[in-house]
Amino acid sequence: MGFFMVPYQGNKGEKIKCISEKDYLMPLNNYSFITSKKIIMKKFIFILLTAFFILGNSNLFSQECVFYSPVEKGTVLKYSDYDKKGKLTGTTTQTVIDNYVEEGTQVIKLRNEYQSVEMDSAFVREFEMKCKNGKYYLDMESFIGESMLTQYSNMETAFEVENMTIPAELKVGETLDNGKVAFTISNNGIKIITISVNISNRKVEAKEEITTPAGTFECYKISYDISTKMVITIKASAVEWYAKNIGVIRSESYNRKGKLMGYSVLTEFKK
After folding, report:
1. Is CATH 2.40.360.20 the right assignment for the domain spanning 63-270?
2. What b/e sequence results for 92-118 when a residue is b if at least 16 CB atoms lie within 10 Å of its CB, and e otherwise?
3. Domain limits of the chain?
4. What is the pLDDT of residues 57-70, one digit of tens each?
5. Is there a contact between 159 and 152 (Cβ–Cβ < 8 Å)?
6. What are the distances in angstroms from CA 132 to CA 26, 106, 120, 138?
7. How far apart are the first and last CA of the chain?
8. Using only C-alpha atoms, what is the Rg of the chain?
9. CA–CA dist 227, 262 (Å, integer)
10. Secondary structure of the chain in HEC code, one letter for each residue
11. Strand pairing of 260-270 and 247-255?
């Protein structure tokens, strides 16, 4: 480091002082340091606020929620049910009536209108599909069956469920969790019967395209076993094809011998 002369306004006859580069540049260096420090602090505060925003906004930035049901309010799905011979037995219209976040859980509220070919009016019920921490929760009441729910719609009913889920990312060959639902029917406080349905051996069989009157959809094929206990126990199996943000595209049910008992297909999908 060298020395150099700088103007100095002192008394007359006073010697000119020599100032080193270090002394002369120190104010400038201090200014640069302070300025850099302020920039770093601003960036740190910005990153910190962004992190708080991300953590606080469960709707957008929590673990990804993938729904296997319609999500957009006003979306309508229509299904047709058939027996093993292909004869129409009933129809279902499903409508999204609300979509909101509650305590970190994404909730889709739907209305089902089921009408068999033998009914004069539709059986209507509302239910919720939920997603939390990247897991989509199925509507367990639907495993009782709309026709069964219709028969006891004028009685006192209660449900006990063990939820089943679908993870955000499905993999072919993956085994999924089991679930169960107990449906108790009472009349004037007196228990009449409890119907129990156990779902087991759920497996992702394939990823394939399925075509119905509503269009062609990329689906995950999921199979499972069903055990229904009323007075006796009835064992069966089922296969369902799920599409993201739509739901079940097609479903098939089989008896314990593996023979087709009936099926349901999506016939209309509109937003």
Report:
1. yes
2. bbbbbeebebeeebbbbbbebbbbbee
3. 20-56, 63-270
4. 434 434 578 999 99
5. no
6. 57, 6, 39, 12
7. 75
8. 33
9. 17
10. CCEEECCCCCCCCCCCCEEEHHHHHHHHHHHHHHHHHHHHHHHHHHHHHHHHHHHHCHHHHCCCCCCCCCCCCCCEEEEEEEECCCCEEEEEEEEEEEEEEECCEEEEEEEEEEEECCCCCCEEEEEEEEEECCEEECCHHHHHCHHHHHHCCCCEEEEEEECCEEECCCCCCCECCCEEEEEEEEECCEEEEEEEEEEEEEEEEEEEEEEECCEEEEEEEEEEEEEEECCCEEEEEEEEEEECCCEEEEEEEEECCCCEEEEEEEEEEEC
11. antiparallel
CA distance 82 to 213: 14
d(CA 56, CA 234) in angstroms, rounded, equals: 47
Burial class (CB in 10 A: 0-12, 13-18, 19+), 239: middle
Q: How far is the C-alpha of 243 from the C-alpha of 220, rounded, in Å?
A: 7
Pairing, β 105-116 against β 179-187: unpaired
Cα 169 to chain centroid distance, Å, stands at 11
Q: Which residues, 6+ apart, have CB-to-CB distance to 238 below 8 Å? A: 223, 224, 226, 251, 252, 253, 254
- pLDDT by residue (tens digit) across 198-237? 999 999 999 999 999 999 999 999 999 999 998 899 999 9
C-beta separation of 121 from 155 below 8 A: no
Please name which of 145, 149, 143, 147 lies closest in space to residue 163, comparing C-alpha atoms. Answer: 143
What residue has token string 């420090």? 37
State the Cα torsion 163-153-234-83 to the nearest 10°: -100
Give the position of tokens 């679908």: 166
**Which of 195, 200, 265 lies closest to 236 in space, CA to CA?**
200
Average the pLDDT over 228-253 and give the result: 96
